[in-house]
Amino acid sequence: MKDKSLPFHKVIYRTIHYGYQKLAAYFWLYIVICIVLVMFNFLSIKVLQNLFDTVSEAVSNGGWNQAAIMVLALGIILVIFRIMSGVKEYFNKLYFMTFMSRILKDMNAKAGRLRLLEFESLKLYDKINMAIGGVNYAIRSSIDLINGVIYYAIFFLCIAVYFYTIKPVLLVLGMLIFLPQLLSNYIKGSKMHKLQERIVPYERQSDYYRKCLVDKTYFKETKTLGASDYFIKCYRDKIGEANNERWKVVLKTSVMSCVLTSFTYLGYIAAFVLLTYYLLNGSLSVGHFAAIYYSLSKLMDTMREMVELFGTVYENASLAGKLYDFLELPEEEGIDKKIDLIQSIRLENVCFRYPYTDKNALNNVSLEIEKGSHVAIVGLNGSGKTTLVKILMGLLQPSQGKVYMNQEDVSTWNIRSYISKISAVFQNYGKYNLSLKENIMLSDVNLKADDDYILHKMDEAGFDYQKESIAGELDVMLGREFNGIDLSGGEWQRLAIARGIYRISDFIVLDEPTAAIDPIEEANVYKRFEEISKDKTVLVVTHRLGSVKTADRIIVINDGEIVEDGSHEELLKQNGFYSNMYLAQAEWYKRENTE
Fold it and tell me: What is the pTM of this model?
């Protein structure tokens, strides 16, 4: 996974191009509003100059009607300017929210196209966290840049030309006001960019410790263990480390900003003194003095806003680069392959190693699973069972070796083609805060909804939808998040099984599907599986060996290698690894029953 970020100019280009491509109408309308605002802002300065000259002339020679007209004109201009500023602010927010929805949509789509292997690395989660933060920064960069270039830059250029036509030295003083602030924000943006990269791991860890304290997944056990104080300490430590990093950067940038800002104010004071001198010696009229003084005040505010904005653009764009780092991660590739039926899946000398590890999870695994067979994969925890299943399902690609489906090499296939005929039920199933019906239909949202079919699949999985809290109502909400009903662990698992078999497929993978069900009910579930999986290929992963006796074939895996392969009776006769595991579990159940 690459850590190299996009350079500043490429981030800016991509952000502006993205905004224009996705929201062209908003883009151009925002530019028009900015230009109109610049025109009225500068026009107010010229009208103010004429107003003071007219009033000065009226004091000497009369003619107050002209002065009244100028006052009215200035008032109209200022009112229009305020209205247009409100319109601009409205479109600013509208553009931001619309842009936000488009980027988040693209991020979600991107996550769905990533290789599963990427999710095995902690670096991906750092990238996701930074990308989520980068969404806001990417949008702000585009809006701020448009605002900066069109509004502030054009206004500054108009003022610069105006000053130069009156007294060129005023332009020099204006630059003295501008440059220190520009330098200050440039340095600040650079340091904030580096800060963000340093504190993301701290923020991710502190967020995890917070979940250990308040998330319902951990809360009861944390409370029972009396571990709240420990997690609070861990949380505070990580927050403290992140805040220490922030404090160092804030302190340095604040000192630098104070020094450079002092030069800005010195330039402003020098400009005021020089204006007074020109007024007294007659080089400037009262109208020029008033207009220049007003424009200097406005220019100082505008310059401060502009340099802060461009500094923010630099800072935001650097952070926005994290969004594009995420969007440029390698995706699942390959050709679309239409599969009518899975006749066989074969592994040939397959090895697999997870990122940032120095040991293979699988070593030279070769096996073939043919249509209609019921295969069980058993082994100790950490032996490689789940990794092998993911390879067989196409969710992971081998580090070495080949995978064949229907005798064709699948290395060039798109993963969606590979899994199109495979259903799966995993031990870590999802507890979706959706309706009962939606929880089942997630297996295949393109399949036409049929209540009778859904109820049939729940029957097959042994899910009791006639219980009092459900009473056959498929639209009942599940989970407490949205005031729905909760289910027991076993009920959630039966629901996951129903979801897995809802999808029409000829290859079913069951990865510890009955972990939350008692052994007696487990036996009933497997009997149902035998009935519903006739003429289907079934691959079962389990640590309860009593449930796999009826499997056509049992594959025993240990330390990433297949050590035994055969039926239950054949493996017992070998008195090997499987036999020892089975007899140990049988003895344990026997002891439990006699106590």
Answer: 0.60
